[in-house]
Amino acid sequence: MASLPAIEHHINELRADRETALAMGAAEFATIALTAQITAYQRVIDRMNTHLASLPASERAQIEEASTVLRKARAGDNHTFLPLTTARPKDPR
Q1: Which of 10, 34, 70, 87 could share a disulfide with 18, CB 3.0–4.6 Å?
Q2: Phi-psi map region of 25: left, alpha, beta (phi>0 left; psi -120 to 50 alpha)
Q3: Distance from C-alpha of 44 to C-alpha of 1, rounded to nearest angstrom
Q4: Residue numbers of the chain with a pLDDT score lower than 70
């Protein structure tokens, strides 16, 4: 499940893309498609906010905490890579 900040960030990127398309004189279908995506994502945000508002405060707090932990984990740069060795097939000769 995407977090609200991630969806809001995506909407902002779509708005920037739409402004760029308008400035470039892009075909109308391109700007219409971007506007439709913005509207669809905004509806998702509205539904998520409505659902969150209907939850008890304790559940909202748990969701906020979990979202914070997930955002930190996704943003983390502390991935440990396993050492890998490339194996080449034996020469069939």
Answers
A1: 34
A2: left
A3: 11
A4: 1-2, 77-81, 92-93
